[in-house]
Automatic annotation (TrEMBL), chain A:
It comes from the Bacteria. This is ABC transporter permease. The keyword Nuclease does not apply. Residues 96-285 form the ABC transmembrane type-1 domain. The lineage of its organism: Bacteria, Pseudomonadati, Pseudomonadota, Alphaproteobacteria, Rhodobacterales. Keywords: Cell membrane, Membrane, Peptide transport, Protein transport, Transmembrane, Transmembrane helix, Transport. The chain crosses the membrane at residues 30-53, 100-123, 209-231, 263-284. It is found in: Cell membrane. Belongs to the binding-protein-dependent transport system permease family. One of its GO terms (biological process) is transmembrane transport. GO terms for cellular component: plasma membrane. It is a multi-pass membrane protein.
Automatic annotation (TrEMBL), chain B:
InterPro entries: AAA+_ATPase, ABC_transp_ATP-bind, ABC_transporter-like_ATP-bd, ABC_transporter-like_CS, Oligopep_ABC_C, P-loop_NTPase. This is ABC transporter ATP-binding protein. Belongs to the ABC transporter superfamily. Keywords: ATP-binding, Nucleotide-binding, Transport. It is found in: Cell inner membrane. The keyword Transport applies. Residues 6-256, 277-517 form the ABC transporter domain. Pfam families: ABC_tran (PF00005), oligo_HPY (PF08352). Its main location: membrane. It comes from Paracoccus caeni.
Length: 308, 544
């Protein structure tokens, strides 16, 4: 089947790019609700500590391990309370800030550095490429937890340092993926065509190669988001991660672990928050991959029309 | 009814896709007799392969669906048989060979094992399978068959792999052999050999040969009858020579008119004055492989120079060396007297505008994530001095119209166009640079015949309008004949023969050029028959 002429649709450029994107998002209902959930998480992260900072840290020893769905103590205790009687719902809202900051910071930093190095390693054939790859191998072969322990013993375990440690350990993932894709794409004809036109290396890398690599990287980054959240909680478990009274979801999961048989909700709710966040990111990245690909975009545009 | 070996009656096949139902073929009727060669001729998307796939039970259902019709093998309807019965027929009664033999041979087994396996699978005796495989290898003309038994597919050339596929297909002495574009991926001289082999084997075994092709030359060479397909329907059917001489349907007429190699050859040009581009003693090694062995070349302003040769002759390497995509090891390239090899990168950047390239596969050479506007305007982003930004839009529209497309196409992406349209976009992109010389590396070989003719016409018109020069790399001689002023014949990294197009085509001096010309297929069955006799004589004169 050769598609000679797909009927021209008057492109919705007049309506503005924003509404076009929103209608494409609405076309994929799962992605739409994922985006909605992530919006709530971001709002919690931004304003949670300001609004509920005091309530979430106030101890109430009479309400220790209070069960969920019991409204007697007020709405804040609807998800139950932790071992010190602090309301879980508020703690999850407050913890969102640290969690998202650490995870997003680490993922962004490692993705940007890894992708940048990967582009260099894949595109240049000089010795620099060799050095970068060996560096990646060294990081890969070094146990990431050990690296974290060493660095965080020497430095103070602050949010910034945790981000740095987690970012370093995740760099090789992006580095290797990017390099492998660049090696393939640089041989494609459209890159050759750009060279014939006299395009600079920078233009070829950023205009022609990067957009093709990006969807893969976004998918890896969203998967990595969950990994980093859990890695951060295992650092907290070792006592070198985020320090109490600061909280993260991962820390809440590990704190609730010892009560798992008697009070499951201590670990369950923050765990659920992690799962839902990762799942939403995954759904959204899946949507983004389709929306960014001009050859696939019609799927969303068609569905949008059918529904509305 | 039962007097035909294979008969397809009223066959209709649909495919359900996201974009709606596509009717791949509608009410197709054809039949094949013992000892006969039937060619199904059509361009890409015409549905020429679908009915053969239905015969072999290769249509994926869903998304495919056979909505009506019968397929009769010796009078029995195959569509009513069970999957088990169909499997017994495939391979044993009906065998198939494909365009790309490397994809259909398992790389981890030796070819002897694979052919013996084909014999055993269909109930052949195990102990004699090896001997039979050896027989087959010898029969299809593989050199040193005993040694070849233990070799792996990657150790053979393209033509030999196609011979291996044929050997496998013949393992069970099928009644019918279906060949789907069997020679499209091969060089002309090898194509002629493979077609000759198919013909010989058919005469020997009396099998029916169903040939699916887009190439009128192949039809003229080998087919008894031809079925012409367009848009999923049969537009014409009949004796091959008859159809060529008196095409009844307008589509067939269009197809025959589009076949290259019939126009008047251009007169010899005056070659005095300063050349536009000159290459002197270009050398290039890839490891131990000597790809260019001192190639000289001159192109005058406004001239079209064609470089022809088989795969591996170094013609693409030459093109890439001239554009400095791959730097040659030694030699010099003079553009208007300036040496590109010793030039400072900044000066070379300025010259990039004058030398442009159109690639073989437009699907590959256009960035899929850029709109047509972005693709064409990229030239002006890189070279801002060509055109101020406010004029981009108007100029893109103008260029698109020049190559026969519409200004509103500028907003679309490459995947929304057909192959021919994409190649037009690639040409518009090259023109945006206002070049003096365009290097076309097999620029039309991936296109259907009728579209090929349009693109050639477009290039020819642009040459006259802008005074462009072309370096036209091709393996297809008839295309070159209509279009080029001069022809350079290359073989294993060297120029074998060079001269004005008339001289090369009418009085070729070198045996290699003669062989190349004799092997290329003419769409006229009568011309082709004469050419075949000439080829046989030639072969007797120069063995191998």
């Amino acid at each position: 089947m050769s598609v000679t002429d797909i009927p021209t649709k008057t492109e919705p450029r007049e309506r503005g790019a924003v509404s076009a994107w929103l209608s494409m998002l609405w076309a994929d209902k799962l992605a739409f609700f994922a985006a909605l959930f992530l919006l709530i998480v971001v709002i919690c992260a931004l304003f949670g500590p300001l609004m509920f900072g005091d309530l979430a840290t106030r101890q109430n020893l009479r309400g220790r391990n209070a069960p969920p769905f019991d409204l007697e103590r007020g709405w804040a205790y609807v998800l139950g309370a932790d071992a010190l009687g602090r309301p879980l719902l508020l703690r999850i809202i407050v913890a969102a800030q640290n969690t998202i900051m650490v995870a997003a910071g680490a993922v962004l930093a490692s993705a940007i550095i890894g992708c940048g190095l990967g582009l260099i390693a894949g595109y240049s054939r000089k010795r620099a490429a060799q050095w970068i790859m060996r560096l990646g191998d060294v990081i890969m072969s070094f146990p990431s937890l050990l690296l974290a322990v060493i660095v965080l013993y020497m430095l103070e375990p602050s949010v910034a340092n945790i981000i740095i440690v987690l970012a370093i350990t995740r760099i090789p993932v992006y580095l290797r993926t990017t390099r492998a894709e660049v090696l393939e794409i640089r041989e494609r004809m459209f890159v050759q065509a750009a060279k014939v036109m006299g395009a600079s290396d920078r233009r070829i890398v950023f205009r022609h190669i990067l957009p093709v690599v990006l969807p893969t990287l976004i998918t890896i980054a969203t998967l990595d988001f969950a990994f980093v959240m859990l890695a951060e909680s295992s650092l907290s478990f070792l006592g070198i991660g985020i320090q109490a009274p600061e909280i993260t979801w991962g820390l809440m999961v590990s704190q609730g672990r010892q009560y798992l048989t008697t009070a499951w909700w201590l670990s369950f709710w923050p765990g659920l928050a992690i799962i839902l966040t990762t799942l939403s990111l995954n759904l959204l990245s899946n949507w983004l991959r389709i929306a960014l690909d001009p050859a696939q975009r019609w799927r969303l545009e068609m569905r949008g029309r059918k529904n509305g | 009814m039962a007097d035909h070996l294979l008969e397809v009656c009223d066959l209709s096949v649909e495919f359900h896709t996201a974009a709606g139902t596509v009717k791949a073929v509608q009410n197709v009727n054809w039949h094949l007799d013992r000892g006969e060669t039937l060619a199904i001729l059509g361009e890409s998307g015409s549905g020429k392969s679908v009915s053969a796939s239905a015969v072999m039970n290769l249509i994926d259902m869903p998304p495919g669906k056979i909505t009506s019709g019968r397929i009769l093998l010796n009078g029995q309807d195959m569509l009513k048989m069970t999957a088990e019965e169909r499997r017994r027929i495939n391979g044993a009664k009906i065998a198939m060979i494909f365009q790309d033999p490397l994809a259909h041979l398992n790389p981890v087994y030796s070819v002897g094992w694979q052919i013996a396996e084909a014999v055993v699978t269909h109930g052949g005796p195990k102990d004699k399978a090896k001997a039979r495989a050896l027989d087959l290898l010898r029969r299809v003309g593989i050199p040193e068959p005993e040694l070849a038994m233990g070799k792996y597919p990657h150790q053979f050339s393209g033509g030999q792999r196609q011979r291996l596929m044929i050997a496998m297909a013949l393992a069970c002495k099928p009644d019918i052999l279906i060949a789907d574009e069997p020679t499209t991926a091969l060089d002309v001289t090898v194509q002629a050999q493979v077609l000759a082999l198919l013909e010989e084997l058919q005469a020997e075994t009396g099998m029916g040969l169903l040939l699916i092709t887009h190439d009128l030359g192949v039809v003229a060479e080998i087919a008894d009858r031809v079925v012409v397909m367009n848009g999923g329907c049969i537009v014409e059917t009949g004796n091959a020579a008859e159809v060529y001489r008196n095409p009844a349907h307008p589509y067939t007429r269009k197809l025959i008119d589009a076949a290259p190699g019939k126009g008047a050859m251009p007169e010899e040009r005056d070659r005095s004055g300063a050349p536009l581009l000159e290459a002197v003693k270009l050398q290039k090694h890839y490891g131990a492989f000597h790809a260019l062995k001192g190639v000289d070349l001159t192109i005058m302003p406004g001239e079209t120079v064609a470089v022809v040769g088989e795969s591996g002759s170094g013609k693409s390497t030459l093109a890439r060396a001239i554009l400095r995509l791959d730097d040659p090891d030694s030699g010099s390239i003079l553009y208007r007297g300036q040496d590109l090899m010793t030039m400072h990168p900044r000066e070379l950047f300025g010259l990039r505008r004058d030398l442009q390239m159109v690639f073989q596969d437009p699907t590959q050479s256009l960035n899929p994530r850029m709109t047509v506007f972005q693709l064409i305007a990229e030239a002006w982003v890189i070279h801002p001095d060509i055109l101020p930004k406010r004029e981009w839009k108007a100029r893109v529209a103008e260029l698109l119209e020049k190559v026969g497309m519409k200004p509103e196409h500028a907003r679309r992406y490459p995947h929304q166009f057909s192959g021919g349209q994409r190649q037009r976009i690639a040409i518009a992109r090259a023109l945006a640079m206002q070049p003096k010389l365009i290097v076309c590396d097999e620029a039309v070989s991936a296109l259907d015949v009728s579209i090929q003719a349009q693109v050639i016409k477009l290039l020819d018109g642009l040459r006259r309008e802008f005074g462009l020069s072309y370096l036209f790399i091709a393996h297809d001689l008839p295309v070159v004949r209509d279009f080029a002023d001069r022809v350079i014949v290359m073989k294993s990294g060297q120029i074998v023969e060079e001269g004005p197009v008339r001289q090369i085509f009418d009085n070729p001096v070198q045996p290699y050029t003669q062989a190349l010309l004799a092997a290329s297929l003419d769409p006229d069955p009568e011309v082709q028959a004469a050419r075949r006799i000439a080829r046989e004589e030639l072969q007797q004169r120069i063995p191998a």
